[in-house]
Amino acid sequence: MDISITSETGLLNGVIVHTPGREVSLVNPEIKDELLFDDIIYEEDARKEHLGMLDVFRTVMPDEGQIFEVTDLALECFRDEAARHFYIELLDKVQPDLNITPIIEDLKKLEPDELLEFVVSGTTASLPHFSLHPSPNLLFTRDLAATVPGGVILSRAARKARMRESILMETLVEYHPLFSKVKEDAIRIGEQDSIEGGDILIASSELVLIGMSERTTFSGLLKAARELLERQVKTVLVVDIPKQRSSMHLDTIFTFSSPNECISFPPAINDRFNNVAALELQDGQIVTTPKYSLKSALEEYLDHEMTFIKCGGEDKTNQFREQWTDGANVFALAPGVIVGYDRNTNTFEALRRQGYEVLNQYDFIESFKTTRFEPNSSIKLAISFEGNELCRGRGGARCMTMPLNRS
Q1: Within 10 A of 69 (CB to CB), how many other CB atoms are there?
Q2: From CA 374, how far away is CA 388, in angstroms rounded?
Q3: CA distances to 50, 51, 62, 74, 327 from 336, in Å
Q4: How far is residue 231's CA from residue 244's CA, in Å, rounded to a whole number?
Q5: What is residue 37's three-state secondary structure?
Q6: Which label site among 230, 248, 346, 391 has the fewest CB atoms less than 10 Å from its CB?
Q7: Is 7 helix (H, G, I), strand (E, B) or coil?
Q8: What is the Rg, in whole angstroms, of the alpha carbon atoms belonging to the chain?
């Protein structure tokens, strides 16, 4: 499979996800804030909801489409002794505060499944006297890396709680055959910087958006932007967003639903001005041009009108409530075919007014039990799925997906 994305809305052919497991049950109220969770999640229901979302994916994806569980890829990778040693040594180097140096040799002796258990859950029976916090944020695979035109940007987590995930993704890119064609040219961020996949949106093969958020540093953004501009991308739009928990990434307040439509959280997007800059490369130097708004900038560089559909609809209270439960964080499976949490009823009503047919996950899947779903330009579908447990982790459908390839 070619690892390349040139659109946020092209037909999904390959995606990496993580169905939540034991690691979310190891989060207790005393450590939830440290692990970047606002609440604790009930594992059984969260798994059921996540698997329901994947059933929708399979209904839309082509027969050759592939959904990869990140833990399956990691287990395949860890069967290579060199990959196991790479991960362990990098973890010791990047996170000395974990103090794993005394047990490095013990870690290297673990079987592949034991090491994976240690990475995800923080414990393994083979090391009964040593444990780390779990990695519940692995659910949000979007932040592990960003597939971009011609390759990948390896994320570098802004918070210690997610650093093990960044190292895991670096190991996958280095050793898993899925990434063999892109590993040499992968864009890597410096140790003192951070960038996370939720801040990177691919508007077209020539236009990439990067949010300057609480999780993506200015220098990390510039590093990624320069490397993109030295390849096939012509313009990077930098979007300055509020530095706060509720809008931790650009995609928590803005996502694409079709090539000419977006879901936006009005207080942070529609009502913000002079917070966008276009970066372009001229004679080897990055040239910065201020833009009045995200909407006007997108229309200028995409050369067509853009419709911004309001997360939560017209009512301000509903806008804030539904942004909090990821109403703006939809995921496109094909142009004009999106999925999002069913609890965001006002956002779905706004989509309905914009011409989308709104279906729940069960009715949608039932409709295509005997016939193949064929997306086309006349279809606009907003598919809701259950996510009352999943949304406790503060991430929606886009957060829980890392696309590898779109048509």
Answers
A1: 15
A2: 29
A3: 22, 22, 16, 33, 16
A4: 32
A5: coil
A6: 230
A7: coil
A8: 20
Q: What are phi and psi of 291, to 5 degrees?
A: -125, 150
Q: H/E element holding 345?
A: helix 345-353
**Following DSSP, what letter does each residue of 142-177 receive, concatenated?**
GGGEEEETTEEEEPB-SSGGGHHHHHHHHHHHHH-G
Q: Which residues fall within 8 angstroms of residue 157, CB to CB, at 6 or more apart?
A: 143, 163, 165, 166, 194, 196, 215
List the catalytic residues: 399
How far is Cα 197 from Cα 186, in angstroms, rounded to an integer?
14
DSSP string, 370-394: SS-----TT--EEEEE--TTGGGGS
The DSSP call for residue 239 is: E
- The 10s digit of each residue's pLDDT in 339-389 is 999 999 999 999 999 999 999 999 999 999 888 898 888 889 999 999 999
Delimit the domains of the chain by residue range.
12-406
Structure tokens at 81: 């002794």
Structure tokens of 94?
């990047």
Tell me the whole-structure pTM to 2 decimals. 0.96
CATH number assigned to the domain with residue range 12-406, chosen from the 4 options 3.40.50.1980, 3.40.50.720, 3.75.10.10, 3.10.180.10? 3.75.10.10
Strand partners, 15: 67, 403
* CA-to-CA dists, residue 150 to 28, 153, 227, 317, angstroms: 41, 10, 11, 41
CA distance 84 to 370: 44
Other CB atoms within 10 A of residue 295 CB: 19
Give, for 34, the enclosing helix (H) or strand (E): none
